[in-house]
């Protein structure tokens, strides 16, 4: 269904976009059709429109058409309160970071192409759907082939950020300022609150299970301690730091398939939550929120190896002397155990649910409202099936023992 056209998305705006920096060209817009890009509940970080434009170059000749995706900051009040100060991060990423990446290597292709936008906080992207890319089902998660493509693409992104940091360190580090995991007063307090509530809800469910009961009290009573460990773990690393996506879950990427249905390519989307620290952070977030169970149970080492090899190959290709050893990667994975635990407690129940997320409830200042929202996701079906399996994976990865050991050592 066609949507109303925002006032600023006028013919002049679209003509500037079509020029894309080529001032000697002019375009006449004949027809515009606007539809929503995503179904409700798939993205809360911005407003996205698919804009189909019919136009003529110089007002003559055959009518041509182009499909674009136009993105502007979110209108959801709770999200604006939490992330409003970072609205220019993604526009700056596309306007300043990506041109540097293309200079370093013309083969960079992990992100969609962009067009010139005359509105500072609005981004115009190529329509990946028109190029044959599809968004995977976030509830079904991603199999090994999808995960492999992701780790290769993200390794390229991470590596080129190291090269750009040598040229423009302030650009990279300013884009990667921590936006979510912080103990600073202000908007981050909203994010901390719902993470602590989610951790306590998980602990309550674990208390009902004999195998995990021994962990429940310490995690419930020390939810703030888990948060503090995660905050510390996400700070820049001693081994290697890169710019990375920050929240690489399934809706923040699109995949392309061949005629047989085999997945052949991926594009990363949404660079609002960029972070500058260990690149392993992205791997941990992705694998504990977006991979299918079989991947976490039997393919983690394979993906770690692929990532490490690709990252180091790309670092060499881009003229960087830095390297990440497999042992350093594994050490970072271990240090990030508190972060992984919070991903499982807070994000996993939400991301595996068909229910539409209510961000205003999750970010409410009333903890009872936040808890009630989590309880909806921790329903009987989730607790009897998905929760049992993810808890088994968390335990097998040594996450419970690492986190509780760290907390007890601080007492």
TrEMBL record:
Organism expressing this protein natively: Homalodisca liturata
Which residues belong to any copy of the CHK kinase-like domain? 123-317
One Pfam family for this entry, by name? EcKL
**InterPro entries the UniProt entry points to:** CHK_kinase-like, EcKL, Kinase-like_dom_sf
User: In terms of domain of life, where is this protein from?
Assistant: Eukaryota
The protein's name is: CHK kinase-like domain-containing protein
